[in-house]
Amino acid sequence: xxxxxGGYLQHPETEYExxxxxxxxxxxxxxYVLVDWHEEHAYLPEHTAASIKFFTNISxxxxxxxxxxxxxxxxxxxxxxDVIKAYHIQVINAIRANDPNNVIVAGTPNWSSDVDVAAExxxxxxxxxxxxxxxxxxxxxxxxxxxxxxxSLNLPVFVTEYGVVTYTGNGPVNETSSQIWWDFLDQNLLxxxxxxxxxxxxxxxxxxxxxxxxxxxxxxxxTYGGAFVNKMLWSKDQGLVCTAG
Length: 245
Description:
Blueprint: H1 12-28, E1 33-36, H2 45-62, E2 68-71, H3 81-96, E3 104-106, H4 109-112, H5 115-119, E4 128-135, H6 141-152, E5 157-163, H7 175-187, E6 192-194, H8 224-234
Parallel strand pairs: 1-2, 2-3, 3-4, 4-5, 5-6
Helix pairs in contact: 2-3
Family: Belongs to the glycosyl hydrolase 5 (cellulase A) family.
Keywords: Glycosidase, Hydrolase
Domain Glycoside hydrolase family: 12-201
């Protein structure tokens, strides 16, 4: 859920209803749903207060559903881990007052790349994972080294956003780097979520511009990147039997 630039901070009622629609659709279809506080400055007092209110409401309403994963700060920027951690503790306490069990994913410094820094001083609590983001055409071994260090320190890592293009959301798909990343994530048993199923005019988008929701499954509406990621996903053994691909 977008928070800044015309998002939740400016239109809380509208955005809350939008996110409820998504959550309830996920629950109805037996899917996990990442409830994402999508911004870079959640540690600012006004933003923190809004986040606490939002996640208090979400956890009160949906905390008894195992489908819910709380992503409480998508991409922190311009702040140290101490500042970010203090924000996380406030929001985690608000969630845990209503939901003691569902996973909470905590953003890490520098647009959720410094999981190694968070691993040196993790948050006390249970079922807390830490956000890591990468874009395959921009980020390589030095970023994987950060993840490896975090794992060596027993930090749970969740890749809640990655792209097969550059961090700008544009540029050509880097198939070679993407495959190296996928192999690394699979070898380390990490979950990862592609950015993104949208129709924005950028190469990170899985859908072509002007596509609508009913066309998500229409292969003719997929971008090159969308088809590339879909092919990878269908190559995995998910433990399920499906009749379409």
